[in-house]
Write a structure and sequence with these properties.
With about 725 residues, the protein is an alpha/beta fold. The chain contains 20 helices and 26 strands. About 30% of the residues lie in helices and about 20% in strands. Strands 1, 2, 7, 8, 9, 10, 11, 17 and 18 form a nine-stranded mixed β-sheet that branches. The N terminus and C terminus are likely disordered.
């Protein structure tokens, strides 16, 4: 909440100077696409329609609305599910998105379980039985806020959706069912609406708009509603209808694993684990059953059990509530008197990325699970989707505002698809690490899957279904027999060897990992809406290993702006300390130029202000002063940057005298400068001052970042 108040408190300070009206140097930039031309003057066309009201779609609708873009959301379900699903929110999502949404990050942190209750993964023979090993996924630096102003969170998806819906309600969104909504086919379009029970059934794209047909039930009758929009964004999950209707294929590995997800409550089990062995994930291996228990909230006793599923020999009827209760009791190690099975869902694990994220002249866009689906190993699914929305929002807003051509949307696919491919590979590596534990115990999942394929596709397929099932059950029973305590102990040579191998896996960090700081905070775009370094410093990132690697701050173009605590220097708020990440507003499309208080840098800032005005975009300048230098600051910056007022003076806040300075963190000197995009990624940097004319350089930078062809501006300048 403090961050959002800070933005509001400085809104007056950062307004562009109203006296600056003339276009300098006789140059007048022709706006690439005005809002009127975008809508073709037709107010029955909605600028953006989002299909799918999961976390990705809801985040995108909030970001677009805060940026002034009119949008609505359609969702085929009539109600939101309380099945917990995703539950890990990484650093990037917390700091880039949720900290900017009116205190949402703080609310998540207040509402989540205490970190000591979920920081570990525990491997055991049953929840009341022997512990085979445990892994603590939180390290001291995760709490020190050195590389990020906020920590990761353990917060169930349905709870997150509830908070996002409150955000939309605060933005005046109306939640409508098929029975309570009229008029979208007649008159003006309806913005700020979430239409529940509306399933997208057809899409027809033209040069002017996309026509979407949504099917819904009203008074027991199937009806259809037509909605016209300029941009359609499919955030409708792994089985995306939008993706299928657009004819976009997925590439990668299908059917890595089939599972059944059992959502249940037991306060008694939660209380026991709370006191005896708190953790987030429990990997349970015994002679009667195998499963992974996700502790969504130990204090409330809310769990989800993941059970391997092998159809067609097994079917969903084999997982009735009564049978699931018995499986849970086997994994727990005793019966639970207060168990309440809420929901049972089958699902399939894939590792695929859409062949393209854009289609139909950039009017149809895919994001989230509609564009990529990963194994749930490391929590990359929901987080990658949320970051898709963050990358996309400012670009759509720029198109709608008319400050960028529709071609800027190409950079969304250029930037995000490689990240999705990388995160898919990383999730696969992490999934393989998860499989290393049962393999060490003599239960290699690849062998089980191979046997299952032979039964389904090989000679076993000609056998009667009952015999197929008996063979499968027999093989699994023999495999689980290796987990008996009489076999798996230090006195048994083979059992002792397997336990030693298991310990090495845990000690060497080769088991399933939760955090990936280098990939979470350190991912960067190699090309897109940015200016690559001329020194060739944009090499491809190191391939995924499935092991935790530390984040190293960088301001290479395409990288996330590093976090550092800074103090605002002004008469009214001289004691306010913020993060450098807080300098980018979530309420408007604005570029940030970070400079040091030197005369050449002030000249560069003048050029940035002038060129930003030519391009009709907002720009803010941050003058970053070394720690300890506070006298005369405001007078110098005010005089040096006049007549512009959209700047802020800041001074470094060091944790200790030996802490690195800002420019040392950036591996630059104080003659350099950094231009940051509205999504907190570096668009351009100069390490030691601009050699060419600053105006010319800034035109080149803004042209490339906004996707405007340079030769067009040169011709306009000549005229």
């Amino acid at each position: 909440m403090a961050v959002s108040r800070l933005f509001r408190s400085f809104s007056g300070l950062h307004k562009a100077n109203a006296r600056i009206q003339a276009y300098p140097f006789g140059y007048k930039h022709s706006r690439a696409l005005s809002s009127d031309s975008f809508n073709n003057g037709d107010d029955t066309v909605l600028p953006v329609l989002i299909v799918g009201a999961g976390p990705v779609g809801l985040v995108l609708s909030i970001l677009l609305t805060k940026l002034g873009v009119k949008c609505s959301v359609v969702e085929k379900s009539k109600t939101f599910s309380n099945h917990p699903q995703a539950h890990f929110i990484n650093n990037r999502s917390m700091e880039q998105v949720f900290r900017k949404l009116d205190g949402l990050a703080e609310e998540i942190q207040r509402s989540q379980p205490p970190v000591d209750l979920w920081r570990k993964f525990i491997y055991c023979t049953s929840l009341y039985g022997s512990i085979l090993g445990s892994v603590d996924h939180m390290q001291p630096q995760d709490f020190e806020q050195v590389v990020s102003p906020v920590s990761v969170a353990h917060f169930s998806q349905y709870k997150l959706i509830s908070l996002l819906l409150k955000q939309l309600e605060n933005l005046s969104f109306k939640f409508c069912t098929s029975d309570g909504l009229e008029g979208l086919n007649h008159g003006t379009f309806q913005e700020k609406q979430l239409l529940m029970g509306h399933e997208c059934v057809s899409i027809k794209a033209s040069d002017d708009f996309v026509s979407v047909t949504a099917s819904f039930l009203k008074d027991g009758k199937r009806m259809e509603r037509n909605i016209r929009c300029n941009i359609l964004v499919g955030t409708d999950g792994a089985g995306s209808t939008v993706r299928k209707l657009a004819g976009v294929d997925m590439r990668g590995e299908k059917d890595l694993q089939k599972l059944v997800s059992v959502h249940f409550l037991s306060k008694g089990l939660g209380k026991y684990l709370l006191c005896e062995r708190p953790g987030m994930l429990f990997f349970i291996f015994n002679t009667e059953a195998i499963g992974v228990l996700v502790a969504h909230d130990l204090e409330q006793g809310e769990f989800v059990l993941q059970i391997p599923f092998y159809p067609p020999q097994q079917n969903l009827e084999d997982f009735s509530r009564q049978i699931c209760e018995q499986i849970i009791f086997k994994l727990v190690g005793r019966e639970l008197g207060d168990i309440n099975v809420i929901d049972i869902k089958p699902w399939v694990m894939h590792a695929e990325v859409a062949e393209k994220f854009l289609s139909c002249g950039n009017r149809i866009i895919l994001a989230g699970d509609a564009a990529h689906r990963f194994p749930p190993a490391g929590g990359f699914g929901m987080n990658t989707g949320i970051q898709d929305s963050h990358n996309l929002a400012w670009k759509i807003a720029s198109v709608v505002e008319g400050t960028a051509p529709t071609s800027i949307l190409n950079s969304y696919e250029t930037e995000r698809r490689p990240i999705a491919v990388f995160n898919t590979e990383l999730s696969i590596e992490n999934f393989k690490a998860a499989m290393a534990v049962p393999a060490a115990l003599g239960l290699d999942p690849t062998v089980a899957n191979s046997v299952h394929r032979v039964i389904n596709e090989g000679v076993g397929s000609i056998l009667p279904s009952e015999l197929q099932r008996a063979i499968l059950d027999g093989i699994f029973t023999i495999g689980r027999a290796q987990l008996s305590e009489s076999f798996l102990n230090e006195n048994n040579p083979l059992g002792s060897s397997r336990l030693a191998k298991l310990r090495r896996i845990f000690e060497e960090g080769k088991s399933l990992q939760l955090q990936f700081p280098a990939e979470d905070l350190g991912f960067r775009y190699l090309e897109g809406a940015l200016i690559p370094d001329s020194d060739g410093g944009m090499s491809a990132p190191e391939g995924p290993t499935g092991r935790r690697r530390d984040y190293v701050p960088s301001v290479v173009p395409g990288a996330r702006l590093p976090h550092m605590n800074v103090r605002i220097l002004s008469d009214t708020s001289s004691e306010v300390t913020i993060s450098t990440l807080d300098l980018i507003s979530g309420d408007k499309v604005e570029f940030l130029l970070i400079i040091s208080p030197t005369e050449p840098s002030y000249h560069l800032a003048h050029a940035a202000f002038k060129v930003a005005e030519e391009f009709k975009v907002s720009a803010r300048v941050c003058v970053l002063w070394p720690a300890g230098s506070v006298k005369g600051v405001e007078i110098k910056s005010k005089a040096s940057l006049a007549p512009w007022e959209n700047y802020i003076d800041l001074v470094e806040v060091k944790k200790s005298p030996n802490s690195s300075s800002w420019w040392d963190i950036c591996q630059m000197n104080d003659k350099g400068a950094i231009l940051v995009r509205p999504d907190e990624h570096v668009a351009w940097r100069v390490k030691s001052g601009v050699v060419r004319d600053p105006i010319t350089e800034m035109r080149r930078v803004f042209s490339a970042t906004l996707g405007i062809k340079q030769h067009t501006k040169d011709q306009e300048t000549d005229t």
